Amino acid sequence: MNRIRLLVMGSVLMLALSAAAQQTAGGVEQSQSSVPSVSPVERHLQVLAEKLDLSNDQRDKARPILQEMHESMQKADQDTSLSNDQRTEQVKAARMKADKEIREFLNDDQKKKLDQLEQG
User: Fold this and answer.
1) How far apart are CA 38 and CA 51, in angstroms?
2) Cβ contact 40:23 at 8 Å
């Protein structure tokens, strides 16, 4: 039973890594597999929803914030005129902005959980 779990987890990890590689390659070609494609924003939202126990209303508020953050990060990553330090600063600024906006509608317990998540 443990071997089956290990095999499944390894397969999922390989699939996730190949999906990430395709996305960082500029979205060259979508995979021909039958696995449905989930956007990075939806994956990020799903993780936050699970870890912070977000309500549907909170998910709806977080989605555009995460979308903007991911677009800003992608834009910075693709801007060849930026140095690595500038790119890092833009990504950090996008994350900080999203963090601040999301915290506005979290309760105190969710904020503590987010702090723990960010430190881990």
Assistant:
1) 18
2) yes
In a domain, 67, yes or no: yes
Tokens 């071997």 locate to 3
Range of the domain at 69: 39-120
How many structural domains are present in the chain? 1
Give the whole-angstrom CA distance, residue 86 versus residue 90.
6
Taking the C-alpha atoms of residue 58 and residue 65, their distance in angstroms, rounded to an integer, is 11
Q: Which pLDDT tens digit goes with each residue over 44-60?
A: 999 999 999 999 999 99
Residue type, 4: I
Is 10 a domain residue? no
pLDDT tens, residue by residue, 24-47: 555 444 445 555 688 999 999 999
Distance between CA atoms of residues 45 and 41, nearest Å: 6
Domain for residue 65, yes or no?
A: yes
d(CA 31, CA 8): 19
Q: Is residue 61 part of a domain?
A: yes
